[in-house]
UniProtKB/TrEMBL annotation:
This is Amidohydrolase family protein. One of its GO terms (molecular function) is hydrolase activity, acting on carbon-nitrogen (but not peptide) bonds. Keywords: Signal. SUPFAM superfamilies: Composite domain of metallo-dependent hydrolases, Metallo-dependent hydrolases. Residues 369-664 form the Amidohydrolase domain.
């Protein structure tokens, strides 16, 4: 199938009107009719769900020069078929929808972890849709690098690290360090040293107990070991890895060293014991990936980025986000998505850049990154854009770095250590409200909206207050309240009145962390109504869903299932008497504002219509309308017909996506979907 090459866009409105019925033959005296412009791509005999209330359904779609040329009946659209038109005859039941839009994730980070040569998987979440042992697609049922075998205890995690160390020692691995991804102590079951004896997660021995360096040194004192948490906010290192990072204030550091930019006193003390929080974790992950993986493997970065974006496309995305891009990452995206470049295969998705410089506490460095990215990319590439600047207000709830109004339900080392943290510990802000306000003003002055990451209720309050006090976002741009699990009804209503703000919710957290956060971290009252999507809809606050990958899986149909059912995962290895008070479904009408479940239709609007609005792209994306970008997903069935049986969403296959008129075939289209909740 040919990829449209021109970016020029003709006017199609008159053509579509003419296609609606057979026009009468002009009289002989009339001037000759202008030739019909033939479509480059046509989809026929489909259930077309436009998500456009004015014209909600159709049978067929025609595409020309990267945009939608016509939508209507088969008979009308067939008139646009020429000898060079690619025609897709939809199988019975096929549903065509607007391509799904990723409201926030870290696409490159997700792609880079999907590299079994350099990174080992120590996750209990099926982040990469690996087949389970017993599935015919799982060819090596004892290999967690290629089949999904969740870690259940700390011993499982350490066994995988030891296996890689043994490969290095025996010469079976040319890569002489151990990098592990998506470790999450909150989701681990009963292991060594649990207090009480039936404890799980943080009640047992983990790397997050104030002794990470000591524990990892016991595994190896010569091979560098770096373990990144699933939240992306905490990492763990042994002494050789710590030495390579050369962090200021840590013994042995030499000039120039890396100076922590967020709560530097606390972060430096934590680094000395092998725990890297907030910007130190971002620095550690980026340092090992860029210097020790990509630098020595020419061409690996673009290949991994392409393969990672293919996973997004295979789950329905046509636009993804790079949620914290520094200058180097921006340049890499510009290289692989430059118009007319032929060095790499066509990139399967469009990409929105969120600029961020984690290496500096000076927000002007982030602004410089955004301005340089805008100058490099320009504003006419439909596949690559600079969408916003980024700021972190705090960290992660399950990592105990979210900034709370009241103490955590439970607290564990190292956060109980008075020499490091003021007690009682309620988390620390990355940036306070006053600084957030200044950053918003800087962003708006230079034509950028701002994406503000916040998780704890104290940081949510500071972020919301900063937005309400700030000047309006640039015309057509929207600031984003990102994550905000504990946002209040009053805050939602205030932002809705503001009118230029989107709330983007990490809805999969309800499933993957509902139980651990209820049981260990926050308690039932602060968890049962987290991510109040229904309340946002009632108030008129535009709401979107995001995966924050590699935190959770990039799968909009799974997000729709979670938002509809609000089920929390009950891992069979995570069993404790104290978990009984935590509900399996996060709905409680006794706690205001009550049931936050929403319909499948509203969920799909969150990843189409509202996501396009969040980006200020509502005139280009989000619905299927004549003149908009030809960004579409073809599904094996209609998810909107599953309102009364949401578990049927597990059976819906993504057949292909169409990104700016370019057809991206899903090689797994005929296989049963791998459901992250299994």
């Amino acid at each position: 199938m040919r990829r449209p090459s021109s970016l020029a866009v003709p006017a199609f409105c008159a053509l579509v009107a003419a296609c609606a019925s057979s026009p009468p033959q002009p009289p002989p005296s009339s001037p000759p009719a202008e030739p019909v412009q033939r479509a480059e791509l046509v989809i026929l005999s489909a259930n077309v769900v436009t998500m456009n209330d004015a014209k909600p359904s159709a049978q067929a779609v025609a595409v020309s020069q990267g945009r939608i040329q016509a939508i209507g009946t088969d008979e009308a659209v067939k008139a646009l078929v020429g000898k060079d038109t690619v025609v897709i005859h939809a199988e019975p039941g096929t549903t065509v929808m607007p391509g799904f839009i990723d409201a926030h994730s870290h696409t490159a980070g997700y792609a880079f972890y999907n590299d079994p040569v350099h990174w080992i998987d120590v996750s209990s979440v099926n982040m990469y849709f690996k087949p389970h042992p017993g599935d015919p697609r799982c060819k090596t049922p004892d290999d967690p690098q290629h089949c999904f075998i969740p870690v259940k205890t700390q011993a499982d995690v350490e066994a995988r690290i030891k296996r890689r160390l043994a490969d290095i020692e025996a010469g079976r691995s040319d890569f002489k360090m151990v990098l592990a991804f998506n470790y999450d102590p909150a989701r681990l079951g009963r292991g060594d040293g649990c207090k009480p004896k039936d404890g799980v997660g943080f009640a047992c021995r983990t790397f997050e107990n104030g002794r990470a360096r000591e524990q990892l040194d016991k595994l190896s004192k010569t091979v560098p070991i770096y373990v990144a948490s699933e939240s992306g906010h905490i990492g763990y290192v042994n002494t050789p890895a710590l030495n390579l990072l050369n962090i200021c204030g840590v013994e042995g550091a030499t000039e120039p060293c890396y100076q922590p930019t967020t709560n530097p006193e606390e972060e430096t003390e934590l680094a000395r014991i092998g725990q890297l929080d907030e910007d130190l974790c971002l620095y550690g992950t980026g340092h090992f990936q860029s210097k020790y993986v990509l630098k020595g493997n020419k061409g690996l970065g673009p290949k991994l980025m392409h393969d990672g974006a293919m996973i997004y496309a295979n789950h329905g995305f046509t636009l993804v986000q790079e949620g914290a891009a520094n200058a180097g990452l921006v340049a890499l995206y510009e290289e692989v998505l430059r118009p007319g470049q032929t060095q790499y295969p066509p990139f399967p998705t469009a990409v929105a850049i969120i600029a961020y410089d984690a290496a500096s506490a000076d927000f002007n460095k982030t602004l410089e990154t955004g301005l340089a990215a805008r100058a490099l990319i320009g504003e006419k590439n439909p596949l690559l854009s600079v969408a916003a600047l980024k700021s972190f207000a705090d960290g992660s709830p399950q990592g105990f770095t979210a900034n709370l109004d009241a103490p955590y339900l439970n607290l564990y080392r190292p956060f109980t250590e008075k020499r490091i943290f003021k007690q009682p510990y309620t988390g620390l802000p990355d940036v306070d409200g006053r600084d957030l306000h200044q950053r918003l003003e800087i962003s708006h002055k230079h034509g950028f909206p701002m994406v503000i990451h916040q998780n704890g209720d104290k940081s949510i309050t500071e972020a919301v207050d900063a937005i309400l006090a700030a000047s309006p976002a640039p015309t057509g741009k929207r600031d984003v309240v990102l994550h905000a699990p504990m946002i209040t009804t009053d805050q939602i209503e205030s932002l809705a009145k503001r009118g230029d703000v989107a709330a983007s919710y990490l809805i999969q957290n309800v499933y993957f962390w509902g139980l651990p956060e209820c049981h260990q971290v926050l308690g039932k009252d602060r968890v049962v109504n987290m991510y109040p999507v229904r309340q946002s809809i009632r108030a008129g606050l535009r709401s979107t869903f995001h995966s924050d990958s590699p935190v959770t899986t990039p799968y909009p149909l799974f997000e729709a299932w979670v938002a509809k059912t609000r089920r929390a995962q009950e891992m069979p290895w995570y069993v404790s008497a104290k978990t009984a008070g935590c509900p399996a479904v996060l709905i409680d009408d006794n706690l205001p504002p009550g049931d936050q479940s929403i319909s499948i239709r509203e969920s799909l609007r969150a990843v189409t219509v509202h996501a396009a609005w969040q980006y200020g792209m509502e005139n280009e994306r989000g619905t299927l309308e004549v003149g908009k970008y030809a960004d579409m997903v073809m599904l094996s069935a209609d998810p909107l017909a599953m309102e009364n049986a949401p578990d049927q969403l597990k059976t819906v296959r993504v057949l292909r996506t169409i990104r700016y008129g370019h057809v991206v075939e899903n090689p797994n289209a005929n296989d049963p979907p791998i459901w992250p909740g299994d």
